[in-house]
Each structure stands twice: as C-alpha cells, then as structure tokens.
C-alpha cells in the first residue's frame, strides 16, 4: 500500500502573505528614510550652519553603522531567533529616528544616525532571511517579486515627501514620520514574524568580527577624511593602512577557523565571488548618486526642495518597470552579457549628469533621470540575483549577510567618495561655483562604475536555472 503524498505547501502569495507584507513594511521604512534624508540635506545644512557640499557624513554614518553591524546580524538571528532579532531592530531604528529629529547639531545628528543604522543593520537582512527560510524554493521568485515592488514605494514617495515636509514644516519631520510606522511594524511583528533559528549553534566569532568591523570603519574614515580640506594627511594614510591590515588579518583568520562569520568556502562559488566584488565596485558610484542628484537640483540649479523631490519620481518609476524587465532579459541573454552592457549604461548615465543645467527643457531632464533609474535598478536586480543564486541552504545566512554588508559598505564609500571629490573640485574650481564641482564629480563616479565591468567580464556565460531568475530585493 502506497503511503499518502505529503501535503502540498500553500503558495507564497497566500500562506506567507502576512510575512511578506511585514518585511515589505520594514524595508519601506528603511528606504523611505534614506531617500528623504538625501532630499533634505541642503535644508539640514542651513539649519545646522554647515556647508551643503559637506553633509555626506549624515549619509555616510548611517551606511557605515549598517555595514559594521550586519556581519553580526546573521549569527544573532541564528542564535536568538528571527522574531526577537527583528523586533529589536525595529525598536532601535525607531528610537534612532526620534534621536535624529531631536538633534541640535551635526555631530548629534551623526551619532543618532549611527543608532538608527544599528537597527537598520538587522532590519533588512533578518527580514529577508525569514522569507528565505519560510518560503519553498519553487516559490522564491514570486515571494521576492512581491517584496520588491512594495519596497520601491519608499524611494518613490521619499524625495517628494521629504521636500514637502521641509517646505511646510521642517527637516525634523522626515525622521518623525518613522515613529508611527515603527510602532505599527512592531505590533505586526509580534503576531506575524516566524521564529527561525540556525540549524547548528555556533560560538560567535568575536575576533573575526572585531577585525572586520575595524577594517571597514578605518577604511571608511580614511576615505571620508580626504574630504576635509584641512585634514591630517598622515592620519588618513595611517587609517587606510591599518584598515587594509585588519581586513587581511580577517582573511587569514577566516581561513583557519571553523566558525568564521563569513567562511571562505563562500568564495568557492564563482557566481558569489564575482557578484560580491561587482556589487562593491559598482555600488560605489550608485551610492554617490542619491547624495549628488539632490545637491545638483537644489544647489546647482536652484530648485526648491519639493520640486527637486518631484524630479526624482521618474527615477523610482522607471526603476520599478526595469525590475520586471530584468527577468526576461536575463533569461534571454544570460547574466554576463546583461551585466557587461548594463554596467556601461549605468556609468554613462551617471557621467551624463555633467551635462544637466537649468537651461535645458524639463522633458529632457526628466528623461535623463528616468533612464538612469531604469539601468541602475536593473543593475541592482541582476547583481543581487547572480550573487545569491548558487548558494546552498546552509550558506544562505552568511552569504545573505555578506551581500547586505557589501551593499551598505559600498553606499558609505560612495557618499564618502562624493564628499571627497566635491571638496577637491570645489577648491580647484572655486571660481566656477558649486555647479562645476558637481559636474566634475558626476564624471568621476561614472568612471568608477565603468571600471566594474572588469569584474563582471570574469563571469561565466550562463543562463538562469530552469526554476526561475531569483530576484533579490534591494
């Protein structure tokens, strides 16, 4: 007598829908905050008595805090469960938002952004990990697609809402709106978030974490220190050297320990190895753009905060459309060809902002922003997919955390790079004004992005697995 067939799991769209909505809400809160901050930077600078071209520390501090704490997020979720970790992340992010709104100085604001970043470091990766462990493999594409579209509403609403809040009230409200969202997310997580634990209890790799975090912080501070005109160059060089030494020490440490945060066996998977390096170098340019575009629109072209925010809507709309098109394009042409061509398109789109000026017709400016949004979104989707697609289930936690760390680290590097380039060009092109410095910086970040094609060139010519293209939420 044949045994009865096991029950078929419910589709992700019905059985897992509350979880998917919860994770989407968390990502929405994080993405809304980041895009609102970029639009409000000039207003913050005026309120705090700072130069608008030297406000990259507000973006940089958050990204660096996230990147520094993400390495521990996977272990914390495995050790204490996804539910408790996710709840703690919401609390920290919400309290950090309140502290940002109450900040009287730039230094206080930067410290508050660090607290916010600690919560954000666990918010996105732990939510995505819960989905990866709750949704059957054959339903992974539909689940990730469900998350991706609601998550893009944050970037769509953020710039316009940020500009409106700055004009109607003040920049403090761009952080205060996180409070009701955080409370609602906490209440929902108490009922919805599953409590997944790691299959094996491992001791936390404290030595490896300290070396990795110190290396990232030192390199980031060295890069950010270049933007200070009167910075001590010896200190910048020292930070860069010890940062590289710390990362090299972690690499040797991970090769000789069994409980490393990010086992070197991950890099035996060629798609993961190339995807991680490609993400790092490609996202440096992409990480600079959210800082540079609002500055160009407000400082360079004299637009109001709300008008500048509305100008960013085509970027988000075209990005949403491109995420859907990425699946069919990769299925037809393969990962390598799409990444090679699209990386060139992204770099050229970034450099083209050097041509924008107030005398151009509005339709041309909006078209240029829409093209950049489309190719940049497609780049993120395909890069993330190729990075995680070939990992085994036991590699999912560490691989997912490493990808999230690299994404935020590159964002911080991008903001620091933009600040350094603006400071350098501002001192040399002082007679031509801030617009000339911004245009030169766009050319440089475009060139940085173009250089990442050398990484994707190493990717084998392959097509997606027959099961689907695994689109990974940004």
From TrEMBL:
Compartment list: Cell membrane
Topological type in the membrane: Multi-pass membrane protein
Domain Major facilitator superfamily (MFS) profile: 19-464
Species of origin: Stenotrophomonas terrae
Keyword Transit peptide attributed: no
Domain of life: Bacteria
Residues passing through the membrane, by range: 57-77, 86-108, 114-131, 143-165, 171-192, 204-223, 235-253, 260-281, 293-317, 338-356, 362-382, 402-425, 437-457
Keywords associated with the record: Cell membrane, Membrane, Transmembrane, Transmembrane helix, Transport
An annotated GO cellular component: plasma membrane
Pfam families (alphabetical): MFS_1
NCBIfam families in the cross-refs: efflux_EmrB (TIGR00711), PRK10504.1 (NF007799)
Protein name, UniProt field: MFS transporter
GO molecular function (one): transmembrane transporter activity
Family annotation (CDD domains): MFS_LmrB_MDR_like
PROSITE patterns: MFS (PS50850)
